[in-house]
Design goal:
Structural class: mainly beta
Oligomer: single chain
Number of strands: 11
Order of helices and strands: EEEEEEEEEEE
Shape: globular
Radius of gyration: 13 Å
Number of helices: 0
C-alpha cells in the first residue's frame, strides 16, 4: 500500500505565503511524476503543478511566477511553495504521485482571506 500525507495548509492573508509538503510512504520502488491539484468551492479539480522524477516542472498559468514546486527523491517528498497568494487560490489542495498508478493524498485546505 502507498500513502501520501500532506501538511502545510491553513489560513493566510492575501499576498502571504504557505508551503505545502507531501510525503509518500509504503511499498514504493520508484515514483514517477508528483504534483498538486486543487479544487475550489463549486469548481472541478484542476492541476496546479507537476514535477517529473528528473525535476522538470509544469505549472498552470494562474500560478506561474508565484508558486514553485520541488521534490526530494531520497525522501519521496514533494513541496509546493506558494507566494503572493490570492483569494482565488482558496481550495483544497491534493497531492498526487504516479507509482504504477496515480495515488492521491487526503487533501489540505488553503484559505486566502483578510
Amino acid at each position: 500500500q502507498v500513502q501520501l500525507v500532506e501538511s502545510g495548509g491553513g489560513l493566510v492573508q492575501p499576498g502571504g505565503s504557505l508551503r505545502l509538503s507531501c510525503a509518500a510512504s509504503g511499498s514504493i520502488f520508484s515514483i514517477g511524476a508528483m504534483g498538486w491539484y486543487r479544487q475550489g468551492p463549486g469548481k472541478q479539480r484542476e492541476l496546479v503543478a507537476l514535477i517529473t522524477r528528473g525535476g522538470t516542472t509544469t505549472y498552470t498559468d494562474s500560478v506561474k511566477g508565484r508558486f514553485a514546486l520541488s521534490r526530494n527523491n531520497a525522501k519521496n517528498t514533494v513541496y509546493l511553495q506558494m507566494n503572493s497568494l490570492k483569494p482565488e487560490d482558496t481550495a483544497v489542495y491534493y497531492c498526487s504521485a504516479d507509482i504504477k498508478r496515480t495515488y492521491w493524498g487526503q487533501g489540505t485546505q488553503v484559505t486566502v482571506s483578510s
